[in-house]
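User: Sequence recovery, please. Input:
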């Protein structure tokens, strides 16, 4: 059986694996935070790459396909969330 994690479980796991980078004003802790940022950047890149592939897949669907439209709306919601953050 291939049981998938839900979004909350993935986020908690990601933070457990990477930590949450914050500035401390202490060299070793700040070096660790820089590494955490690098790791989170790699995770973000992978997520954005996967979303980009999903977008390509949606574009290749036949015009008017209901499931592709639903996927497109979900992708648009993610884009809106990213725009708010960035």
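Assistant: Recovered sequence (86 residues):
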């Amino acid at each position: 059986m291939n049981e998938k994690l839900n979004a909350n479980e993935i986020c908690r796991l990601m933070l457990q694996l990477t930590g949450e980078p914050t500035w401390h004003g202490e060299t070793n802790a700040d070096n660790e935070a820089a590494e955490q940022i690098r790791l989170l950047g790699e995770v973000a890149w992978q997520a954005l790459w996967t979303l980009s592939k999903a977008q390509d897949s949606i574009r290749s669907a036949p015009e008017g396909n209901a499931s592709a439209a639903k996927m497109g709306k979900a992708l648009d919601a993610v884009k809106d969330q990213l725009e708010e953050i960035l």
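Residues 7-85 form one domain.
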